[in-house]
Amino acid sequence: MGLCFSRENKSTAKRRPSKRIANQSAAAAAGGGGGSNRWTRIRSSRTEENLIHERALAAAILFQQQLQNGGGTASFDRSTSMRYPTGNSKRNQPLPRSSSSRARSLTDPLLQPHQLVNQDIKLDNLETKHFVLVHGGGFGAWCWYKTIALLEESGYKVTAVDLTGSGIHSFDTNSITSLSQYVKPLTDFLEKLTDGEKVIFPDLVILVGHDFGGACISYAMELFPSKVSKAIFVAAAMLTSGQSALDMFSDKVESNDLMRQAQVFLYANGNDQPPTAIDFDKSLLRDLLFNQSPTKDIALASVSMRPIPFSPVLEKLSLSETNHGSVRRFYIETVEDNAISIAVQESMVNKSPPEQVFILKGADHSPFFSKPQALHKFLVEISRLP
């Protein structure tokens, strides 16, 4: 949206430890009776729920190994299951037998599921293939069209949300009165995901926030820390607890003449009342937000951008180290940014360092337009970090 942000210093966010599967003790594995059936021995030392847990996890690990070793789906071209039904078979004839001529694969589960679990596998490698993209102020899900295509072609699941009053969301921007109302499409989506604290394979996501979307994903990280594996801020606001976007904006806007010239305040409740939204002078969009972007993308933005609700910009966030601080943060800087200058971005990073910083050279404030391939590369790289 082009609001200029900075950040007060707080203690460095705690790095969320990688989830690991706990090793089962040898004593537990051998604690059963002396029966000949191997599954009976396991059941004698484990509850049925634990056994189901291990089988499911083993299946997921094998599937992940198959993808890493061969890529794509598992091949069963040598497998033939043969049954011999006949229309005139006698009633007392034995049931037809099934046989397979497929040679055993190296990835076939020769080990028991609990032995596969004992390999100290990181769950992050199995569960972070889902990106949730959150647009900045004035933008919508439409701005991510290049990023969506690139990520999906690379095998990722991608969800791009329209925040309230943005994109194709029909709500009147001037009627938005709080950050929670503005972010509701995102929080509603996250609320429906399976909680990582309750199931074996949670629906963990990687949140990506651009511009004011950074404040929005911070709000979501506080509410749903167990559903977010990583958070990526792309030329975005990284607010600290007790800080609002306006605090940052007020601190930096005086040094950005182009920003002041481009902003147009809207007063839907009358000129004697506080502003209800912020819009941009369309003639200055290219210089402010898209100075390195293709003409066709600027044309798309000029007919798609909507005003930014003002009340969410005023709202101070309440963020805790326990929730928000437990999520791993990454920052992608945009060097040719005229809306949030590289100096402002570096100031935010220095005051509250994320786990890692990536620098997009030649990118304006909208890297999904100006540097889509480079942005995609960074997103994939971050997703693969252990």
UniProtKB/TrEMBL annotation:
InterPro entries hit by this protein: AB_hydrolase_1 (IPR000073), AB_hydrolase_fold (IPR029058), MES/HNL (IPR045889)
Domain of life (superkingdom): Eukaryota
Region (Disordered): 1-40, 72-109
One Pfam family from the record: Abhydrolase_6
Domain AB hydrolase-1: 131-375
Membrane spanning residue stretches: none
Biased composition range(s): Polar residues: 76-96
Protein name: AB hydrolase-1 domain-containing protein
Species annotation: Penstemon davidsonii
Organism taxonomic ancestry: Eukaryota, Viridiplantae, Streptophyta, Embryophyta, Tracheophyta
